[in-house]
Structures are given as structure tokens and as C-alpha cells.
UniProtKB/TrEMBL annotation:
The chain crosses the membrane at residues 52-71. Gene3D superfamilies: Spore Coat Polysaccharide Biosynthesis Protein SpsA, Chain A. Residues 1-37 are annotated as: Disordered. Belongs to the glycosyltransferase 43 family. It catalyses: 3-O-(beta-D-galactosyl-(1->3)-beta-D-galactosyl-(1->4)-beta-D-xylosyl)-L-seryl-[protein] + UDP-alpha-D-glucuronate = 3-O-(beta-D-GlcA-(1->3)-beta-D-Gal-(1->3)-beta-D-Gal-(1->4)-beta-D-Xyl)-L-seryl-[protein] + UDP + H(+). It is found in: Golgi apparatus membrane. SUPFAM superfamilies: Nucleotide-diphospho-sugar transferases. This is Galactosylgalactosylxylosylprotein 3-beta-glucuronosyltransferase. Its cofactor is Mn(2+). Keywords: Glycoprotein, Golgi apparatus, Manganese, Membrane, Metal-binding, Signal-anchor, Transferase, Transmembrane, Transmembrane helix. The lineage of its organism: Eukaryota, Metazoa, Ecdysozoa, Arthropoda, Hexapoda. Pathway: Protein modification; protein glycosylation. The keyword Cell cycle does not apply.
């Protein structure tokens, strides 16, 4: 995200909102002495009887609430009571409820998938050498635009070198696209191609929650497959990934973090590490985010994530990473710093200049198989790169020996 975009976001969460988020979190953690926990507040008692049993009920509720808060997070998870909240670093599910998370219930349609790894060698070693390494689930939100196919091609050529990886390509559009299926299939990397469009009400928002519907669909896919073994990483289609990143994230026990290069004003965003522990964050846009990190700056172990049934990512531009990490109950002392204690850059937030669809003016009678142009332009159309027109704009320039030629000279 550019710094201008970050600034555009600033007013969205006022200091008041931030204080509110923190206050709500605070209330959740210090509710015990004053009010009973909402989870045990259910069920009402008749007015008359209430007066005489009230002290007893209050005492019982107080006792239960205190027991609830004294149980360790893990015990509560085991009891199905949601994520723990012993310290203020963590989001309880009540806190998350109050942040207007929509349950993960996206329209998710699988276009095609393959679990077969058709690559024989990766990084000069046969596939069998990689044995039982945990699988990296590499989630790529993507959307139709002129640069989509080149971006995915470039990314695929990085991923081709990475063993034991399942590529979840989640397209922000209504319909499947054969061209994309053929492309993904050709790489030989195990993949799932799904479509899950951004709900229309968010489309015209500025800024819009980019890549959220599709990442949410991928989270749903992981949950539906009950995957509790492997590593989740959100890898946008336009970033640049160093192959060492994959070795580093594969070791993730709970949540690992590392700096991302080319982010906003400082050209970097990432954890501050002291004596091997993450103690704070360096990022030029804080805006109340407890976890001010880029989407590409962390990885999550699926076994850890499975403990948090309220895992979620909100439609809240700029806060997707923060609230996702809160939804999985992250605590600062659990974070595993990677990339030589966060001193190296293993991923870059590169951005591609976007241009509108190309327009080539050519009469349709010339788009037959007398030349390559019919097939070429039809391919470009399928890729969403360029379109042909018969009457808009200037005639397409076709030249020979440095001189423009009439189309009929070359194509009839
Ligand atoms: C930055 C972060 O790196 C993203 O992870 C984050 O989602 C984004 O900001 C945000 O908060 O909006 P940035 O380069 O600014 O990324 O955004 P894009 O690269 O344009 O979009 C992020 C991802 O979402 C990309 O993979 C892109 O293909 C996808 N996207 C974008 C959609 O799926 N739909 C869209 O309408 C736009
Ligand atoms: Mn980007």
C-alpha cells in the first residue's frame, strides 16, 4: 500500500475508534469485578424471585466469570469457549464480535484444482528429496486487469522452485476463466483455482477492501478441508519473493514474522527485535493497529490456527492484517522472528503500474488465419490485455521498412 493510500485511510479509524477498540479489549480483560461475563449472562429470572435470589445469582455469576477468566487460554479453547485472553495482546472472541466481523461465508466456487505435483526437480534436487516437509498453502488473491496474467506468470516462475507448496489462486471475479485454468495447470504446481468476487457494495468504496473476499474464500477452503498441518502464507500476485522466504516460513510453529521491503514511506515494515524476541514494530502507518504489519510479512502454522474457530479477515481496508492476527489470538511473545532475526528482506512489496485495456483498431475481416493477428489478438482478449475495435480511435499502425502501410497491403 502506498503512503498516499495509507493517508487516505487515516480518518477511517479515528483516535476515538482506536481508543474504543482498546477500551473494548480492556473491558473484556477486566470485566470480572464489575460485571458478569456476557457468555454467562444468558437466561433471565422472574422479577419477583429475582430480588431474593439476586445476591446468590450475582455471587454465582461472579464465581463462574472468575473461573472463566482464570482458566488458561488453551483450556478454554479445549472447552470450546473461544480464544484465551490472559493478556492485553490477545483478541477474545467477544472483542472480535464487537468489531463487526462478518462470519466467513463467502460465495466460493472452485474452477479447477490439481493435487498432483508434476515437477520432477526443484532447486536441482528430485522431488522425492523433499519428503515430508510441511506443505505451504500460498494464498494469492488476484483480479482481472491488464497485468493479471503476466503477474501470475512471474509469480508461478518463483513458485516453480518451491517444493511442497499448494497454490490457492483466489480470483476476485464472478466467473471461472478457462484461460487461467489452462495456465495454472501448465505449471505443474499443485493448485486450486477459485473465484470469489468482492461483494458489490464494497466495489465503489475508496479505498476498497482489496483482496479480502478472495482471501476469506481461501480461509474457508482451508477450514472446509480441515487442514491442520501446514503453513499459511498470504502472497499477493504482484510482490517479489526471495526463495529463502519459503525455507524460513516452513519452520513456523505458530506465527512467524519478517520485514517486507518497499513498504510506504520507510521502504520497509517489520518487527523490532531485541535478544531474539519481537518487542515492537517499525511501520510508517500505525493508526491504532496492534499488529502494524503487511500481509506478506507473516506466516501462520495451520495447527495453531485451527485452535481459533473465529479466524476471520474483515472488510476493513488497512486493518485486514491486524484484525486477522487478532482473530487468531496472537501474543507478542509467541512471534517467531525470521530472516536472520528480521535483518534481511525476503519479500518485496513491488507494485506494477496499471494501465487500461489496450485497444487495437482493425477490421474484423483481417482477423482470420491469413495472418497471426487474429489468433494473437484473440489470445490477448482472453488474457484481458487488449481488445479489438472496428471503428474507435486511430487505425492500428502496421509498418514495413519504417513506413506505415494500409492494412489491405499486408493483410488481404
Ligand atoms: C497492500 C498489501 O500488501 C495487501 O496485502 C493489502 O491487501 C492491500 O495493501 C490493501 O490493504 O488494500 P497493495 O499493493 O496496496 O497491497 O494492493 P494490491 O496489490 O493492489 O492488492 C492486494 C492483493 O489483492 C493483490 O494480490 C491483488 O491482486 C488483489 N486485489 C486487488 C483483488 O483481489 N481485487 C482488487 O480489486 C484489487
Ligand atoms: Mn500489491
Amino acid at each position: 500500500m502506498s503512503s498516499a493510500q495509507y493517508q487516505a485511510l487515516e480518518p477511517q479509524t479515528s483516535d476515538e475508534d482506536n481508543e474504543d477498540i482498546e477500551r473494548r479489549a480492556h473491558q473484556n480483560h477486566h470485566r470480572c469485578p464489575t460485571a458478569p461475563h456476557p457468555m454467562v449472562r444468558k437466561g433471565s429470572v422472574g422479577m419477583g424471585r429475582r430480588r431474593c435470589v439476586l445476591p446468590l445469582v450475582v455471587a454465582a455469576l461472579f464465581f463462574i466469570a472468575c473461573c472463566y477468566l482464570t482458566l488458561s487460554g488453551d483450556t478454554r479453547i479445549a472447552l470450546g469457549l473461544g480464544g484465551g485472553s490472559e493478556d492485553s495482546e490477545e483478541g477474545s472472541h467477544h472483542e472480535l464480535d464487537s468489531m463487526n466481523f462478518r462470519p466467513l461465508n463467502e460465495s466460493l466456487h472452485i474452477c479447477s484444482e490439481s493435487y498432483e505435483d508434476r515437477r520432477q526437480f526443484m532447486q536441482d534436487k528430485p522431488r522425492s528429496d523433499y519428503g515430508q516437509l510441511p506443505v505451504i498453502y500460498f494464498v494469492t488473491p488476484t483480479y482481472p486487469r491488464r497485468e493479471q496474467i503476466p503477474e501470475l506468470t512471474r509469480l508461478a516462475h518463483t513458485l516453480l522452485h518451491v517444493p511442497r507448496l499448494h497454490w490457492l489462486v483466489a480470483d476476485d471475479q464472478e466467473k471461472c476463466n478457462d484461460f487461467m485454468d489452462t495456465l495454472l495447470n501448465r505449471f505443474g504446481i499443485p493448485f486450486t483455482h477459485m473465484v470469489s468476487p468482492m461483494p458489490s457494495k464494497f466495489r465503489n468504496e475508496k479505498p476498497a477492501p482489496r483482496g479480502v473476499a478472495n482471501r476469506r474464500a481461501a480461509l474457508q477452503w482451508l477450514r472446509q478441508h480441515n487442514l491442520t498441518n501446514g503453513i499459511l502464507y498470504f502472497g499477493d500476485d504482484d510482490n517479489t519473493y526471495d526463495l529463502r522466504l519459503f525455507t524460513e516460513i516452513r519452520k513456523t510453529q505458530r506465527v512467524s514474522m519478517f520485514p517486507v521491503g518497499l513498504i510506504a514511506d520507510y521502504g520497509v515494515s517489520g518487527p523490532v527485535v531485541r535478544k531474539g524476541k519481537v518487542v515492537a514494530f517499525l511501520d510508517s502507518w500505525v493508526a491504532g493497529r496492534r499488529w502494524p504489519v503487511d500481509m506478506a510479512g507473516f506466516a501462520v502454522n495451520l495447527e495453531y490456527m485451527a485452535q481459533y474457530p473465529y479466524v476471520n479477515m474483515p472488510y476493513k481496508p488497512g486493518y485486514e492484517e491486524d484484525l486477522f492476527l487478532r482473530s487468531i489470538g496472537l501474543k507478542i511473545n509467541q512471534i517467531e522472528p525470521r530472516g536472520n532475526n528480521c535483518t534481511e528482506i525476503l519479500v518485496w512489496h513491488t507494485q506494477t503500474k496499471s494501465k487500461k485495456l489496450g485497444m487495437v483498431r482493425l477490421e474484423s475481416k483481417y482477423l482470420d488465419d491469413r495472418s497471426n493477428l487474429g489468433a494473437l489478438l484473440s489470445n490477448l482478449k482472453l488474457m484481458g490485455v487488449a481488445s479489438t475495435t472496428e471503428n474507435e480511435g486511430r487505425n492500428a499502425l502496421i509498418s514495413k521498412n519504417g513506413k506505415e502501410k494500409p492494412h489491405s497491403d499486408i493483410l488481404s
